[in-house]
Amino acid sequence: MRLATRLAAACAVTMPVLALAAGAAVLRLAAQDIHREQVAELRAWATELRPAVEDLPAMPPPGTGPLRGAAPGGGMVVEAAGRRWTTGGPPAADLPERDGPVDVRAGWRVWRGYAVSLTVPGAGPGRMWVFAPLGQEERRVRELRRRLLGVALLTVPAGAAVGWLAGRAAARPLTRLGQRLAALGPEPGARERVVVRFGTTEVDAVATLLDSTLDRYDEQVARTAQALAASRSFASAAAHELRTPLAGMAADLEVLQRHPDLPADQRREVLGDVLDAHRRAVAVLAMLRTLAEGELIGPDSFAELDLAELADVEVTAARSRHPTATFTLVAPPSLSYRGFEEGLRCLVTNLLDNAAEHGRTAETGQAAVRVEVSAGVEGVRLIVEDRGPGVPPAHREEIFGRFWRGPGSRGTGLGLALVAQQAALHGGRVEATERPDGPGTRFVVRLPWQGAAR
Question: Residues near 234 by Cβ (< 8 Å), separated by ≥ 6?
Fold first, then answer.
């Protein structure tokens, strides 16, 4: 059964039950009011008759004098000195010896009365009871019950109808939410969201929660798609780039196998080619792995770091890798920045290695690399420049593509691609220009303060 039907049915049943319960409570309260009203009337009647009875010189015979017709529809009993005078009222019976309201049962009939003490002339102290038949009260209650029943016969169906409509109206936001969910498109990220004000706090909260869940689902789907794309790219690039070194290694090993009697100098040359091809293959795989990992990095991998200290550590390491090159670092004592530490290390390392490799001067054949780290209003800036031949303007954009290598380059063609990737990951950019004070290449990396763009 649908929830809307359940709510409507529950309201349709509950409202008539509440109406009947309210009617029963009203009937009970009304009966109590009628009882109190009758007792008050009897008290007033007894109070009114008491002076007249006490002023009589002697009690007259029943049915005569002031006792005759004194209680139309009811009755009165006066008792003193062992004698009883009665007009109407219940037949002779034991009457309660107390003042106040009394009920007397005579057979199947109940009389409601009120007793007061008095002094009867010639008889001394006595008591007077005035009575009214309970049937009068019962008739009034029955009349009220009939009226309430008539009202209930009209209220119950009307209450059921109102309850049904109220239940349907209460469930309408849930129905609209279901329709909204059914209308969502199947494509992650391309569909509209649920958020619509349904006018019901609980339903609006569920809609907001569903939107949040869909956002997380879309994020996971996007990250999964990124991972698959990175895997495909890695496999394709590895197959493409490793084909040449592996083929060269296979050819060299085959030469060694077919010619075991090669001279020692030729054997060393062939083995050197095999080692160079192996190193190249390992370097390509490492670079490709780093590129693939960089595509999956999110803001949760970012942390506070000292960019000046990071640059100092990487410059020191570069001096060890390139002993013939000179490195100069210009940076503040410390520079706090929020970013992906491994990615920034990779960025600095590849810029330094690229400058040391391609920044050799024609005169000395050695590279002089200058590194500058600074902070500004918009973010931080990293400059790496050399005094080499420079990059032609036509290639200053191409050098950041994957597997792009200049003439005579011994690199993998992936270093500057990693630099561009990490700069973009941090919401920044990198550009290659000429040195302002002479020949050479100047790489400028600008990183905003806000961190990741994704």
Answer: 288, 289, 291, 292
What is the predicted pLDDT for the residue at 440? 86
Specify the pLDDT at position 7: 62
CA distances from 13 to 162, 173, 274 (A): 11, 22, 89
Give mean pLDDT, residues 301-327.
90
- Residue limits of CATH 3.30.565.10 in the chain: 297-448
Whether 284 and 238 have beta carbons less than 8 Å apart is answered as yes
Query: What are the tens digits of pLDDT across the range 148-166?
Result: 777 767 766 776 677 667 7
116 SS3 class: strand
CA angle, residues 60, 61, 62, in degrees to nearest 5: 115
Q: Which two tokens stand for residue 368?
A: 């002089």
Closest CA to 255 of 241, 242, 272, 240: 272
The reported pLDDT for the residue numbered 358 is 83
Which comes out higher in pLDDT, residue 89 or 24?
Answer: 24
Is pLDDT at 442 greater than 80 in this prediction?
Answer: yes
φ and ψ at 401, to 5 degrees? -85, 160
Strands (E), 354-440: 368-375, 379-385, 429-434
Amino acid of residue 151? V
CA–CA separation, 411 vs 390, rounded Å?
17
CA 348/CA 356 separation, integer angstroms:
12
Q: CATH for 297-448?
A: 3.30.565.10
- Cα distances (angstroms) measured from residue 369 to each of 90, 353, 408, 412, 422: 129, 10, 20, 21, 21
pTM: 0.46
CA-based nearest residue to 346, from 292, 403, 280, 408: 292
Phi and psi at residue 324, to the nearest 5°: -85, -10
Q: Other C-beta atoms within 10 Å of 282: how many?
A: 11
